[in-house]
Amino acid sequence: MQKIVPFLWFDGKAEEAMHFYVSIFPDSKVGSVNRAGPNGPVFSVSFQLAGQEFQALNGGPMYSFTPAISLFIKCETQAEVDAFWARLTADGGEEQPCGWVKDKFGVSWQVIPGALGRMLGDSNPARSQAVVQAMLKMRKIDIAGLQRAYDAA
Prior knowledge:
Helices cover 34% and strands 28% of the residues. It is an alpha/beta fold. The chain has 2 domains: 1-63, 2,3-Dihydroxybiphenyl 1,2-Dioxygenase, domain 1 (Roll), CATH 3.10.180.10; 65-153, 2,3-Dihydroxybiphenyl 1,2-Dioxygenase, domain 1. The N and C termini lie far apart (46 Å).
């Protein structure tokens, strides 16, 4: 049993968001759809993304998502970065700086390759700083661009 489960508040789009997210991530599935009464509107949903449990609520318009909290996607290849980026920016999602995306529901995601962390963790401060400077100029993270900055430092 997962002890801590992210809980997302939507304004009437929890079920739509669940199906959207489940379609993007491997090892994902719809859990439950709970209605307010036998034939009422969807109240809450549960689902798994890449094996991680999530709950979502149709709580109304009084709260909205901010980048103050985001969901971090660990990627290993540029193809994986590109695929998640394309899906999350589709149909009204927005590219943000430094590997961040706001999806069509307003949820913030970080689409980050492991190579970025490895380069930032280099013991040579000139290399890690060169990678930071390269990253600050990017929206979608380009591993080859990071590598060029790293190698040039």
